[in-house]
Amino acid sequence: MRYRLLTTVLRWLAAVLVLRVLVTILSNYPDYFPPDFDSLFLQGRESTFVGSYRPAFYVHILSSPIVLLNGLFLVVAPPRRRRDRLHRVLGRVQVVVLLALVLPSSVILSRHAFGGWRAGLSFAALAGATATCAVLGVVHARRRHFDRHRQWMMRCFVLICSAVVLRLTSGTAGMIGVPSPEGAYIVAVWCSWLVPLTVYELVERVPRRTRAGSEVIRPRSDCFL
User: Fold this and answer.
1) Which CA distances in Å does 4 have to 84, 113, 117, 135, 209?
2) What pLDDT, on a 0 to 100 scale, did the predictor assign at position 182?
């Protein structure tokens, strides 16, 4: 019972944090329609805001909130009998938007990332890892291995939330005035997904007998697809 209560509280706290950061991100969208190159994110990007970068940028900023909010709902409200169908529909939307729009556009944007190739490499690796988790989640759902499906889709959502973590860490670095903003950003980019993923893996590997001390472990039927 204690373990279940703790995970529920942490889940809702994470949801509030994600929503708070997402509202902050969306508040900057007026600077992008039309692009204001004096704004924080687009400053100095006149030379790169051409060719494939421009459509990829708009595809990314319009599709990313969808997978973040949709994924948040799927995590906070796991399936029950009355909403299994809704869960499957939203799961399909999540995977399609992620694989068809968010990740391809992020790879294009990574070629011109602030921080150069080292930051761009992190974004490209993140896209590959996220796609892998999503595909494996689909595979296990199709095979009705729902516990493994849940694990892979949770990894996928943790990686999606790297945008939130990056916003927090880079914003903090800017507030404290780090001597090398570019270097700090490169570190933040890598840490934004490697650290949360590592934490998730450690928590997921907590021995089941430890959890069973306060509750009975039952097979779950979480299924995105």
Assistant:
1) 21, 40, 42, 28, 14
2) 86
Q: In whole angstroms, give the CA distance from residue 52 to residue 49.
A: 8
Question: Is the distance from CB of 157 to CB of 77 less than 8 angstroms?
Answer: no
Task: Give SS3 for 114.
Answer: coil
Give the pTM. 0.84
Q: What burial letters (b/e) apply to 23-48, b meaning 16+ CB within 10 Å?
A: eebeeeeebeeebeeeeeebeebeee
Count of helices and strands (H, E) across the chain: 9, 0
51: left (phi over 0), alpha (psi -120 to 50) or beta: left
Specify whether the CB–CB gap between 213 and 136 falls below 8 A: no
Would the pLDDT of 7 be above 70? no
Q: What is the pLDDT of residues 17-53, one digit of tens each?
A: 888 888 888 888 999 998 998 887 888 788 889 889 9
CB 33 within 8 A of CB 57: no
The closest of 53, 51, 89 to 70, measured between CA atoms, is: 89
Secondary structure E strands in the chain: none
